[in-house]
Amino acid sequence: MTRAVLAAALLAVVTAVLADDFLLRFLAEILLLGIAVMSLDLLIGFGGLVSLGHAALFGGAAYAAAIAARAWGGDVLLMLGAGIATGTLLAAAMGVVILRSGQLFLLILTLLTGQMVWEVAFHWRDVTGGADGLRGLPALSFGPWALPGAQPLFLLAVLLAILAWLVARSYVAAPIGRALVGTREQPIRMSALGYSLFAVRFRALLLAGAIAGAAGALYPFVNLYVGPQSVHWTQSAAMVIMLVIGGIGSLWGGFLGAAVYLGIQTYLSAWTDRWQLCVGLVFVLTVLLLPNGIAGGMRRWRGGAE
């Protein structure tokens, strides 16, 4: 694991030196959305909690960071603090509403609670900019040091992706993570053993919200803009598609899915308006040929090695 992290860090430094600004911002977007998809994987892949409101946590944190940046400047620690706090609070509010319901009702309630956040973002024009969103964000900084341009943003995204993956991996391996899997596989038995299904799932949702919020805090600085689409349910659906393509139950699969989805969106959309059809074809082929996603296919190709 240590060697993999060091290799990723070295590759990131080389990429930051050689790549142009467009590619660096594109890679940063992949990493930040990949972090959000990875946090969604904690709920779906390990908890069996399918959510169509996850974009509300990610996009809500993006709005909070953008509003804080316009008011107090783009200090990285301030942005991350605002994003994590917002993602966690929104997850807590969502958890109180949804986690006592069954699977179908849970899915519908995540959709409804997520759309409540969209309603606020779309109609509270004085704060969120309404349909126009928020623009004119200051450059990122770290204390007295300015971090302008794409290189610092990309390196921050790399660092955040590594830290988020380590946190998620530690959580999954810990007893609380095993308990979350137990609530998915044998909820009645877990209740009989004395576990509170609500408490186990609520903690998972809080962690997912915090991780998604951290990624959302940096997301507005990719394009120096955040709009209501970032909290819409269609963005949540796109995250689910990314997760299925990358591989449910594989934490790093979310990054693969985000790369495939955004690659199609960014490059094929320059050639055709039907890029979403291409995403649909990739999704169907993944379900038929790689039911465990790209990550699962890669593990199988490597003979099951982790």
UniProtKB/TrEMBL annotation:
InterPro entries: ABC_transp_permease, LivM-like. Its main location: membrane. It is a multi-pass membrane protein. The chain crosses the membrane at residues 43-64, 76-98, 145-168, 204-226, 238-262, 274-294. It is found in: Cell membrane. Keywords: Cell membrane, Membrane, Transmembrane, Transmembrane helix. It comes from the Bacteria. This is Branched-chain amino acid ABC transporter permease. It comes from Roseomonas alba.
